[in-house]
Every structure is written in structure tokens, then in C-alpha cells.
Amino acid sequence: MSGHSTYTPSNGFTRWIDERLPIIRLSYDSFVAYPTPRNLNYWWTFGGILSMMLMVQLLTGIVLVMHYTPNTLMAFTSVEHIMRDVNWGWLIRYMHANGASMFFIAVYIHILRGLYYGSYKAPREILWILGVVIFLLMMATAFMGYVLPWGQMSFWGATVITNLFSAIPVIGDPIVIWLWGGFSVDNPTLNRFFSLHYLLPFVIVGVVALHVWALHVVGQNNPTGVEIKSEQDTVPFTPYATLKDAFGMSAFLVVFCWFLFYTPNYMGHPDNYIPANPMVTPAHIVPEWYFLPFYAILRSIPDKLGGVIAMFGSIAVLFVLPWLDTSKVKSNAYRPLMKQFFWILVICGLGLGYLGSQPAEGGYVIASRILTAWYFLHFLVITPVLGLVEKPKPVPESITAAVLAKNAAH
Amino acid sequence: MDTAEPSRRDFLYIATGAVAAVGAAAAVWPFVDQMNPDASALAMASTEVDISAVTPGQTITVKWRGKPVFVRNRTKEEMDKLAAMDVKALKDPQSDADRVKKGHESILVVVGVCTHLGCVPLGNAGDHKGWFCPCHGSHYDASGRIHAGPAPLNLPVPPYEFVSDKVVKIG
Question: B38, A181: Cβ pair inside 8 Å?
């Protein structure tokens, strides 16, 4: 896909650099001359949006560390100090807290785009798996970051999530005590979470580099799911994709800024403005919104180990998705049945999210069980079977043919 | 050279590799073990509680090893209700008598941490008016035994002893 390089150094200095470290050539080939499918829609701008959000989180996070104190006695007050005293501290912290939510909004759209257009299928399996790894790293990072303000939700979130490991037979309890560094979530836990919360984003940067590398080896998928066949099917990354991404990022920033400036606590919980109290659990604890579907799956199983297995299994199933889908057609645009099941899955995920926010009782539990069963049914049964029985619509000969046919219809 | 016989060089490779593996494991251990509770955390292991003010029907919460411990003085009716229960039908079968000290049957001492995912259950709540965990809906009776919900085990009884009729030493 990468082809041979078309970069030519324009002067003696860049030629000198190119012969020693061809970094300008690498950037040029990756982000200027790189051929992108000519039919990409706005769902393809979320990769760029995610890169932007990663940078926002890194920048604001590094600044917050300059004012935060990772100690159980001072963490809560140091966060209040950031909010009240530090110049622009309120803005930077709200950017970081809302940025995490926006990051997850973008990643869920990015994942769903991959599902809809079959971007996980050959030859993009490793690209997809790296994406799932990034998603897991994001969840670990977000969880540990939420613990740092040391409010009630921080403390009890940390307690519940670390206790998930106690479901492992025999070695579960020693693992939990090892994670805590004591007999409960306490100062050693806060310190190590702080250390890892600072480390993991850089690990994410590393895996993102692998993700982009894999992308540039196999090339981008596109709304038709038909691979690039000739130069006619492509446009150069710059200016076409660059400007489209820039527009997508700007639109996304409008939404981000709306949350940031008009309702910065909408996606948080008021209980986290109460300092952590190890003696009292809040009456209604819920994780951050982006974990709610997984939380609903955890609670739907009336068995401790079973619930934990189902929750981790709901992500593990994504790792093997490339081999579960038996259809030869990538894009759901040409799969009339899968297209419907895709939207049912989206509704199922939203439903699980809603149920995760509700108390674990009565009808909510029954509904969670039905939707959890459907989630696994979709990936483990419907996806493999549908690929064999569904009759797909004719797939266009090439990207260009699809574009021309669409324009002719107008 | 390709011989079927193991040579002295093969032996040297394996021996060197084995020593390197032991050395690497020994070097990794401090980095793993530093996360375990240190001596100062282990030293906070016992606490003494005056229970003379806990009248029947009352529960107090004390802190032991950073966790809440419930000390509950059960009423006559609660004790009668517990005695009438079918122990074998429980998820984690244990009789109330096995969970208290002889001569102090009305006093129950349990770690106030739900055995599901570690929340602190609410007292005098739930189906059996023992404890109810608000996080994921586990119901415990007045003996701290699990009846319904995702928790797999009864609230654990910590090691404790009566120093006198009034003072309990936990841990």
C-alpha cells in the first residue's frame, strides 16, 4: 500500500537531513502524499479527532500534575485548590474531566464505524486488535484518573473495580491486597494509581503509533468496503483528508466546548464533591457513563465470578470478531440484514448503558439479562451465521465506480 | 556441527540460560513485592472496642485495618428469627452459633464489607432486616449471612476475643 516514496528534498539542508534521518520523508509519505480513498465520509474523521483528544488529555494532565498532591489527606483539597486558586485551574481541570468523556464519545463512534463498514476484516485484523488494546488502555487510564480527586465516587469506584479481581478463585484475594498495598483502598493505592495514570497515556501513544503504522500498511477501509484498485480510487491525504479532518475536529470541539463552558459537571457525579469516606458507601454508586454498559453486564449475572467473566468477555469477544464474521462483504451498505442487526446492537448497547445507571433490582435486572444475552448472541451466533445465509447486494466494481454511480443518480 | 549427542556446549548454554532466568526472576521480585502491604500496614492489625454502650437493637461501626467492622447487639426477636431459619438452604451455610462467641450470643462482630465487590452494606435494611448492600443488591440477615443477591459469601467474622464483658479486641 505504502508504495515507493515520492518525496524530493527541496533544498540542500533537507537533502542533508534526508540522507541521515529521513523523518521529513516519513511525514510527507504518511500525511501529505498518502493516498486515501476518495469516498471517505465524516465517520472517518474520528481517528483524527481521537488523536486530538489524546493530545488534549496529555497537555491538560501534565499541567494538572503541577498542582495536584497524590496523598489521601491532601488530594481532595488539592483538586479544590486547582478549581479555586490556580490561575485557569478550573478551565484546565474541566477540560481534562470533560475531555475524558469526549474521548470516549469519539472512541465509541470510531468503533461503531469500524463495525458498520467491516473495518476489522482481512487484512485489517491486527489494526483492529490494536484498536481494542487502545480501548482497554483508555478504560484503565480513565478509571485510575477518576480515583485521583479522592471523592466518594473515586473511593468506592476504586473499591468495587479492584474487588472484581477477588472473583478469581484461590489467588483472587491476595491479588486484591497486592493491588491495594494494604487491606483496603488507601494511600498506597492512590499513589500507585497516580503513577500508572501518568504512565498509561504514553503507552497509549505508543500503541496508537502501531495502530497508525498498521493502518498505513493495509490502507484505509472506505464506505464501500472495496479495496483501492487504482490511483483513480484515491486522493492525496493533503489537502483532502487533512481539511476534512480539520473540519470534523472543529465541529467536535464545538460540542466539547458546549459541555466545557455550559454544563461542565453534567457527565460527572455530585457525590464526587464529597471527600472519600471509607466507612460509608453512597446509596447509589454508578461508574462514569462510558462504563455503564459493561457495568450493566456485570450486574446482570447473579454470580460473582460469572458477572466478572461476562464483563471482560464482552470486550474479549471484540478481539476475535475478525474471525467470527464469515461474510465476504465488508460494508454493511451491501448487507441488508446485517445493517439491521447493527442498529439493533447499537440500541442494545444504549439500553445496557441506561440499565447500568439504574438500581440493580426487579425489572431492570431482567432487562439487563435480556440485553446481555443479545449482546453475546450478536457476536457469537448472529455474526457467524448471517455471513453464511445472508444474500448481499451487488458490491461495486471499484471505489470510483461507486462514486460515479452515486453522482449519476443525482 | 549437527550431532544427535548433546555436547558440552549444549550443557553450557542451558546452564547459563537457567542461571540468567533465576537472576532475572530474583531481580523482578522486589518490583512486584513492593506493592504488597508493608510492615507498617500489617502493624495496624488489632483494635479494642468498648461495647458496654451497645444496647440490644443497636449496631456500632468501628475501623479495623482501614475497613468498617459492625458490632451488633441483636434483640431477642432477631435471635428467635435466626434460630428458626433453615441453615442448609443458605448459599453459604453456617449456623448463627458458629458466628458468635459462647456466652455472648447476642453480640455479632462482622467485617462490614460486602463479599461481592466491597461496598459497605446498610444496617437494618433488606429482606431480612440484617444488612442490604446498595451497590448490587445483596441481602444479609441479622447474622450477616447472605440470602439473596450476587454476594457469594456471608459477611466474614474477623478474629476477635472478649477481653472482658465490656471490651472486645478485634484482630
Answer: yes
Distances (CA, A) of B67 to A335, B103, B113: 55, 26, 7
Q: Which domain holds residue A84?
A: 22-287
Q: How many CA atoms lie within 13 A of A357 on its CB side?
A: 11
Residue A141, CA distances (Å) to A155, A204, A361 in order: 16, 9, 30
Per-residue pLDDT tens listing for chain B (171 residues): 566 788 899 999 999 999 999 999 999 999 999 999 998 888 767 889 999 889 999 999 999 888 899 999 999 999 888 888 888 889 999 999 899 998 898 999 999 999 988 899 999 888 888 999 988 888 999 999 999 888 899 999 999 999 998 899 998
ipTM: 0.80
C-alpha torsion sign, points B143, B148, B153, B155: negative
Do A160 and B63 count as a contact with CB atoms less than 8 A apart?
no
B136 classed as catalytic: yes
Q: What cell was used for A361?
A: 433490582
Mutation target for B interface from A175, A196, A285, A304: give the one with most B CBs within 10 A.
Answer: A304
3-class secondary-structure state, position A278: coil
Q: How many domains does chain A have?
A: 1
Strand stretches in A119-276, DSSP E: 234-236
Task: Establish if A357 belongs to a structural domain.
Answer: no
- Residue A353 inside a domain? The answer is no
User: Cβ–Cβ of A192/B35 closer than 8 Å?
Assistant: yes
CA distance A182 to A394: 62
Instruction: Residue B151: list chain A partners with CB under 8 A.
Output: 304
Q: What amino acid occupies position A29?
A: D
Q: Is residue A99 part of a domain?
A: yes
Q: Which residues of B touch A365 (CB under 8 A)?
A: 137
Q: Write down the pTM of the prediction.
A: 0.91
User: DSSP 3-state assignment of A4?
Assistant: coil
Within 10 angstroms of residue A29's Cβ, the number of other Cβ atoms is 19
| Other residues' Cβ atoms within 10 Å of the Cβ of residue A278 | 18
CATH number at residue A272: 1.20.810.10
**Is A175 a domain residue?**
yes
